[in-house]
Amino acid sequence: MSPPPRRVIVGISGASGAVYGARLLQALQDMPNVESHLVVSDAGWRNLRHELDMDRASVEALADVVHDLANVGASIASGSFAAHGMVVAPCSMRTLAAVAHGLADNLLTRAADVVLKERRRLVLMVRESPLHLVHLRNMATVTEMGGIVCPPMPAFYQRPTSVGEIVDHSVARVLDLLGLEHALAPQWQGLPLDS
């Protein structure tokens, strides 16, 4: 009898950086025994079209299961849905605020709320700059609730040679946080003392 799949919920909200959600879905697609569940905000769909020229069908094809944002009765809206974790990639400040304050006003924010209440791993790839005080307070609140705020930051110590490598490194960090093995980016081996 094979083990049940590890189910990962991917939310794509309306911040710039739709590439992070798309690349995460691609990486999950290549992992054995991982089942991806996708939910996208209206602004998320708009950014996927604008930033990546991806239509809805192309994005949905990357996920095992696609959920409608308005369907708050979907499987991922319940704590009985055994999710391995959830990533919001990218995470807008509006979505961050809704999660921080438990609004659960659509399926994306409800699923995040459920992941937190069930003490499962929630990773928010927040995208905004500069940040004002409410942004910072919402990040602190989510962190205090057990979520992980993981802004996609370029890691120049890896000496990336393309935008794709920069994106892969950020997605690799998220996969590390979920405890999922990958080959997207090398693990840091350190520098010798004399370098």
From TrEMBL:
Keywords of this entry: Flavoprotein, FMN, Prenyltransferase, Transferase
Flavoprotein domain location: 7-177
UniProt binding sites for dimethylallyl phosphate: Y157, R173
Catalytic activity: dimethylallyl phosphate + FMNH2 = prenylated FMNH2 + phosphate
UniProt enzyme class: transferase
Leader sequence residues: none
InterPro entries registered for this protein in UniProt: Flavin_trans-like, Flavoprotein, UbiX-like
GO molecular function: carboxy-lyase activity; flavin prenyltransferase activity
Pfam families xrefs: Flavoprotein
EC number: 2.5.1.129
Gene3D superfamilies cross-referenced by the UniProt entry: Flavin prenyltransferase-like
Residues that bind FMN: G14, A15, S16, S41, S92, M93, R94, T95, R127
Function: Flavin prenyltransferase that catalyzes the synthesis of the prenylated FMN cofactor (prenyl-FMN) for 4-hydroxy-3-polyprenylbenzoic acid decarboxylase UbiD. The prenyltransferase is metal-independent and links a dimethylallyl moiety from dimethylallyl monophosphate (DMAP) to the flavin N5 and C6 atoms of FMN.
NCBIfam families registered for this protein in UniProt: PRK06029.1, ubiX_pad
Family, per entry: Belongs to the UbiX/PAD1 family.
Full protein name: Flavin prenyltransferase UbiX
Organism: Diaphorobacter nitroreducens
Gene from which the chain derives: ubiX
